[in-house]
Amino acid sequence: MLNFIYYPVSFIMWVWHKAFGFVFGADSGVSWVLAVIFLVFTLRAILYKPFVGQVRSMRKMQEMAPEMQKLRKKYANDRQKLAAEMQKLQSENGANPLGGCLPILVQVPVFIGLFHVLREFKPGKTENYFFGADEVRSFVDSDFFGAKLGATVINTQYSTTTLAELGGNLTSQLIVMIPLMILAGIFTHITARHSVARQMANPAAMANPQTAIMNKLMLYVFPIGVVVGGPFLPLAILFYWVANNLWTLGQQYVVYKKIDAEEAEKKEKATAQRNSLAPKPGQKPQRDVRDTSANGNGAGPDAVEAGSDGSLDGGVAGGTDGGVAGGTDGGVDGEASSAPAKKPGAKPVNKPKPGAKPVGGKPGNRPAGQAGRPGGGGNRTQARKGKKRR
After folding, report:
1. Least buried of 16, 93, 207, 251, by fewest C-beta within 10 Å?
2. pTM recorded for the entire structure
3. Where does the protein principally reside (predicted)?
């Protein structure tokens, strides 16, 4: 029924046994042990990218933990709305909780497949999926320091062959199996502790009671289970377990270091960009030039420029239409003052022509716009009289 699992597992193991058989010999127990170990390495290499995706997804889920907690409180009585909001939040942040389960879900069938293939190595059997009769006999006759790879110390209803049928003895089996059981439990604990240490960086995730229970199971129950269950498993399964935990430990170190470096680089870039946009110390802020006069009387920029020249000459500063320009108007004493705004219907003030004589025939009788010129000596009353005589 599960041949789609058994055949790929047996094929990978068969390829590695052929490769190491050229070096150590086809009947050597070392060749079979390395075939099992590199079966694990092949599988984990294939699952490297999904594992990286799993780590990234877990990191995003940890970052979203406060938002998820708020949604749980907000929609505590509406599970359908809560599920919809959770899915929306995960899609917005690119998190996939199912993606984190993929590496584990793939390893379970491989473990089952390897366990089944090892059970089928029986004396007198002619084939075992990809293995032929010679390879079955080679596995049965081989040993690793006197221990049989397909034998268990304690037989169960799932055991197809006993240690005596494979030609082994209990002492040699225990000498090899006990250290492997201890190593499998230690590496399982170290791997779990490494993962839990990453989770402790997020207090919100650690506050979840379910997370605390799972962490305790990973740290203590699973390692103890491996040690206790070792005598019921074939020796090759213990090699598989140790190799799998060693790979996981090394892979976690490499992947976590890579992801931490990426996040540190992103933070540095964000900080550098923020600093580049911030104003430098002592720098004045840039402001837009408003269409107002310098003295606030509402005249435009051109009028201000023209008025500045008119104040020096004492004439009327302004445009050719006779509009009063913002600037200084030549007063009686030549002091700067704002010219009054042009009234509706008022006649335009004509600018005196160059060389024209002042109105009134007297030096002091000059137009009001020229009264403030040095040496004029006129006043506003005389200017009005001159206008009437004209």
Report:
1. 207
2. 0.64
3. membrane
